[in-house]
Design a protein that fits this description.
The protein contains 29 helices and 25 strands. By secondary structure, the protein is of the alpha/beta class. It has six domains: 146 residues, Roll (Archaeosine Trna-guanine Transglycosylase, Chain: A, domain 4); 95 residues, Methane Monooxygenase Hydroxylase, Chain G, domain 1, CATH 1.20.58; 64 residues, no CATH class; 178 residues, Rossmann fold; 84 residues, Helicase, Ruva Protein, domain 3; 189 residues, Ribosomal Protein S5, domain 2. The strands form seven sheets. The protein has a five-stranded mixed beta barrel.
Length: 833
């Protein structure tokens, strides 16, 4: 028995005729033997009710919606206010006589209210039970002959019955006492009832029972049995109510501190509302923030910090500017992926397929990446190294990072570090500043939404430094696998675990990267592509992509292999393939324009079409020296965009022994020229040079492409050869290029970037390359195409260089001079490969 289902006094209409709600008793009728009650006719119109049993002596509201029921009211009420109420046995919308119970109640219609939707609400006073003897009408509504049923009362001297009635009354009053929110009228009604049958009917109508059980009580004419049956139901519900009360008391005794704070917080809120100090919605915003923080599963120490901020937020007036700062901070904490992870896909075969799909060749790099993923598979909690892809632009460094993320099934984020000079871009700004925000690392973690993404730090060699700090120094903690598990951004000011992030850096040139930062990364070099590799990349990747981007189908634009070679040779000069893709795209756009105009349906791209679309060749591939001339040498240089051929020109004219350097030569290259000059002057006898030649002559060393800055020690060999060739009046072979650093003892020291330099030599049409003997180990990594087309001469000292570089006839002269100066004259030409 509950307050709303049992003792409601308010006359709220209930949908008892065709709905799903149970109507509520709104009062108690007069006694069954009241002479003022209307006479019950022998034939009654039958109103079928669903989900409800009406007992004599009660007044209830009923909502009538069925057309047949509304017809019953319209035709019957003008003649008689008495109708029959019979409960349905089934849930039919149009019940027949067989769908109804055989016993119901005769009721007097007290009031009828018509509703705007066409339905009607009637208040009925239930009078007596009746039984259906014979159905006389089924359409438009049911009408039946009825027999009034009279209750069977026990003898007045039956003490057992009297005790049962008293017990029922006391139990009902106790039930009302333990049931919360029961109207006071219910107690008064029960205490004032003297008829045991009416009291049993009133309690039965308000007990929480199923319809068949209530119908069974309605059909029970023996009042003594009815009272005992209702007593069992009331006692059972009284025990249940006692248990509920005990459970509520137990819960109340376990009132936690958090609940107590919430209760006190509600009181404070009510006081603030009374004082007009809290606008509507402030508390809802705080609770929403708290919910988001709990859903984010913050670590305990972070949640403690968040609780402090929530406490501050609650104490601040909403007009305070500090409110927006705290709200932004808490939202940042809630948005961070403290415990959200992507499930790693460590299928090495699938990873190999993805790498092969996205990138051509680069076998060494792919092998290292597969090893990296294999270690992740065997030791998921291990701290892997920070990878750094080093190479010229356009060789696929950034796309390799995306391929790693695809292979692992992780989210991918790219951070461009080029031009960043403010350390706060990495570590964030303190919240004391206006417009403060987290650093780039935390922002990317917030954006990807997982704790273990792949983050690419692009162009790490382009970081700058000024009065605002050094961003490269801020990256030291981020890129240290043993420290970044507690990375502290200045904005969030709590530790955040970055140990599960795979960081991949890219750079074009490592000299600009500080040594401590280089020490934290494993450098994987991605050298430039050979012409054969570019041709395969263009055929399998670039053409397909450009056809799709320009709206062309493969059959509308077919490329001949010779056309791609023409683009590579005459219209690009780069280590990567970025410019190559642009030129292919230009040709595809030209064809797309013709197809769109309807001029052609399809076209095969030939070398002639390439020249027609792109114009005259932009580069002359045969860039080596046409003729040999004393003082002019072909050197090799390494730049951030790949290898380049470097011509070094030296000339002399009468003067006072001065030297002039031009061509934007850096300090290291200037020192190389000075060292080369000193080395030549120390060997004048072997080279057949007059000792007075340097005193009476000025020297001018120039490196063409004067607008391009140049620096580095690897041109030392070329500088020495140029000056020695100039003063010995001996031409240098035009098909030879050289690289290497020299010492004052004449030794040739190793250099870097050998692959890029040899690729540049190959592009320029060089046939032989002189390299330091100490670089022999690097020949293994060179492409087979380079090894097959270039001849390599290994030089230990400058004598080896001169023997290989000078013209054959002049070489014999120098060899004889060396023999005459004390040498055995039997030293062979330097070893070539």
């Amino acid at each position: 028995m509950t307050a709303k289902d049992n003792f409601m006094i308010d006359p709220t209409p209930a949908d008892g005729e065709g709905g799903q709600q149970n109507p509520h008793v709104i009062g108690v009728a007069r006694k069954e033997d009241d002479p003022d009650q209307p006479v019950i006719p022998e034939t009654l119109p039958i109103l079928a009710i669903r989900g409800l049993v009406v007992f004599p002596g009660t007044v209830v509201p009923l909502t009538v919606r069925r057309p047949t029921s509304l017809k019953l009211l319209e035709e019957s009420l003008p003649q008689s206010k008495v109708i029959g109420l019979v409960t349905q046995q089934t849930n039919e919308e149009s019940p027949g006589p067989d769908d109804l119970y055989k016993i119901g109640v005769a009721a007097n219609v007290l009031k009828l209210i018509r509703q705007p939707d066409g339905s009607a609400v009637i208040a009925v006073q239930a009078m007596r039970r009746f039984a259906i003897r014979k159905v006389v009408l089924t359409h438009p509504f049911i009408k039946a002959e009825v027999e009034v049923l009279w209750p069977i009362m026990p003898p007045k001297e039956d003490k057992e019955f009297e005790a049962a009635v008293r017990n029922l009354r006391e139990t009902a009053l106790r039930l009302i006492k333990v049931t919360p929110d029961v109207p006071e009228q219910a107690r008064a009604i029960i205490e004032g009832m003297q008829d045991p049958g009416q009291m049993a009917d009133f309690l039965a109508s308000n007990l929480n029972m199923e319809v068949p059980d209530k119908q069974q009580l309605l059909e029970e004419l023996d009042v003594a049995k009815r009272v005992r049956a209702v007593q069992l139901r009331v006692s059972s519900q009284y025990e249940i109510a006692q248990l509920q009360q005990k459970l509520q008391q137990d819960v109340a005794s376990q009132f936690t501190d958090a609940q107590r704070r919430a209760y006190l917080r509600e009181q404070i809120k009510a006081i603030q509302r009374e004082l007009g100090e809290e606008p509507e919605g402030a508390d809802e915003q705080i609770e929403e923030l708290r919910k988001e923080l709990e859903e984010a599963q913050l670590p305990p120490e972070v949640m403690e910090q968040a609780e402090k901020e929530l406490k501050r937020l609650r104490a601040l007036p909403q007009a305070s500017p500090e409110v927006s700062v705290i709200v932004g901070y808490l939202e940042s904490l809630a948005d961070l992926p403290w415990n959200k992870r992507s499930e790693d896909n460590l299928d090495l075969n699938q990873a190999q397929k993805i790498l092969d799909r996205d990138h051509y060749d680069l076998e060494k790099v792919k092998r290292r990446l597969i090893e990296f993923l294999a270690v992740r598979k065997l030791n998921p909690r291990g701290r892997g190294p920070i990878l750094c892809f080093l190479g010229p632009p356009g060789v696929g460094k950034t796309s390799l990072g995306q391929s790693i993320a695809d292979a692992l099934g992780r989210k991918f984020a790219r951070m461009s570090l080029g031009g960043i000079r403010d350390e706060a871009e990495i570590r964030g700004h303190r919240r004391t500043y206006i417009g403060s925000m987290p650093g780039r690392i935390i922002q990317e973690m917030r954006r990807v939404g997982t704790k273990n993404p792949v983050i690419m730090l692009d162009e790490i060699d382009k970081l700058g430094a000024d009065f605002r700090g050094d961003p490269a120094s801020a990256l030291l903690e981020v890129l240290d696998p043993r420290q970044n598990n507690a990375f502290v951004d200045r904005y969030i000011d709590v530790p955040f675990d970055l140990s599960e992030v795979i960081f991949i850096a890219t750079a074009n040139y490592m000299d600009a990267v500080p040594a401590p930062l280089r020490d934290r990364m494993e450098v994987i070099e991605l050298p430039g592509y050979t012409e054969r590799e570019k041709l395969e990349i263009a055929k399998n990747y670039l053409v397909v992509r450009q056809l799709e981007e320009n709206g062309l189908k493969p059959e509308q634009c077919q490329w001949e292999k010779s056309a791609l070679s023409r683009v590579i040779e005459d219209y690009t000069r780069e280590a990567g393939v970025r410019e190559l893709e642009r030129q292919i795209g230009a040709v595809c756009r030209g064809i797309a324009a013709r197809v769109a105009r309807g001029e052609i349906q399809a076209m095969t791209v030939t070398p002639q079409i390439v020249q027609e679309m792109l114009g005259p060749p932009r580069y002359i591939r045969e860039t080596r020296l046409k003729t040999s001339k004393p003082g002019v040498v072909t050197g090799l240089a390494y730049t951030p965009i790949g290898g380049e051929v470097l011509f070094i020109e030296a000339t002399r004219y009468p003067g006072k022994g001065n030297i002039t350097l031009t061509g934007q030569i850096g300090n290291v290259m200037r020192e190389s020229v000075q060292a080369a000059l000193s080395l030549v002057r120390s060997r004048v006898k072997e080279l057949g040079i007059s000792a007075d030649a340097f005193r009476d002559m000025d020297i001018h060393v120039h490196v063409p492409s004067g607008a391009v800055p140049k620096d580095g020690p690897s041109a030392g060999v070329a500088m020495f050869t140029a000056i020695a060739s100039l003063f010995s009046d001996t031409p240098v072979r035009s098909e030879v290029a050289m690289t290497g650093e020299v010492t004052l003892r004449g030794l040739v020291l190793p250099i870097g970037g050998l692959k890029e330099k040899t690729l540049a030599a190959l592009r320029a049409g060089i046939e032989e390359v002189i390299i330091p003997k100490l670089n022999e180990k690097d020949l293994f990594d060179l492409p087979e195409e380079v090894k097959n087309k270039l001849k390599f001469t290994l030089a230990e000292n400058v004598d080896d260089v001169l023997r290989a570089a000078l013209e054959r006839e002049e070489e014999e002269k120098i060899h004889n001079r060396l023999k005459g100066s004390g040498g055995d004259g039997t030293k062979p030409r330097p070893r070539s490969q």
